[in-house]
Amino acid sequence: MQLAGALCKICNSKILMQMDATWCARCNSAFHRACIERDQGFCPACRQAFDRPQNHFVYSKYCSECMRLNDPPKATCAACGTSTCWDNRSQYEAFVEHMKDTSRVYLVRAVAELGLGSLCLFLLVVLLITNTVGIRTLFLLVLGLIILIPRGILTIRRSRIIGRFE
């Protein structure tokens, strides 16, 4: 949750640094850490016991960027620094669904790349058999074949990796 720039619900002054702030997970009210500690764990906004956000954090099993295992769970990936922590379960589940959608988009793209690469191969074979291929056409079909088939294979692989995110 972005807290810098918000007003502290206790002292009504602006929160300048993210690291100096926290919030009540029950009502999402922002506070300076020092202010809420002085209030002895009582949230003045919802008038209940202060519900620490750390109690609700959800950590992904893998990094969403480099897909390295996040074990033991940390807030950021040790390898690439990407955030691996969400404020609550619903935010985490929404992100997992986003990753599944991304995986499906990659799969459709991979099928299209492989299909076009196969079309290049088919046209190349037909034109070579009929001996009606020009040098420019030959070059374009071979180039399409060389680019599209490997790219399609790599995109399928990436789709499967992204689809495993949890």
Describe the fold and architecture.
By secondary structure, the protein is mainly alpha-helical. It folds into 3 domains: 1-56, 2-Layer Sandwich (Herpes Virus-1); 57-87, no CATH class; 99-163. The chain is built from 3 helices and 6 strands; from the N terminus they run E-E-H-E-E-E-E-H-H. Strands 1-2 form a two-stranded antiparallel sheet. It has a two-stranded antiparallel ribbon with strand order 3-4. Strand 1 and strand 2 (30-32) form a beta hairpin. Helix 2 runs antiparallel to helix 3 (135-163). The longest helix has 42 residues, at 89-130. The radius of gyration is 26 Å and the shape is rod-shaped. The relative contact order is 0.10.
Rounded to an integer in angstroms, the radius of gyration calculated over CA atoms is 26 Å
Largest sheet features? 2 strands, antiparallel
**Helix count from the secondary structure assignment:** 3
Strand content: 5-15%
Give the distance, in angstroms, between the N- and C-terminal Cα atoms: 21 Å
Fraction of helical residues: 40-55%
Q: Tell me the series of helices and strands, N- to C-terminal.
A: EEHEEEEHH
How would the global form be characterised?
rod-shaped
What is the count of β-strands?
6
What number of domains?
Answer: 3
On the 0 to 100 scale, the average pLDDT is 91
Which stretches are low in confidence, meaning pLDDT under 50 for 5 or more residues running?
A: none
Give the strand order, joined by hyphens, for the main sheet.
1-2
Task: Tell me the structural class.
Answer: mainly alpha
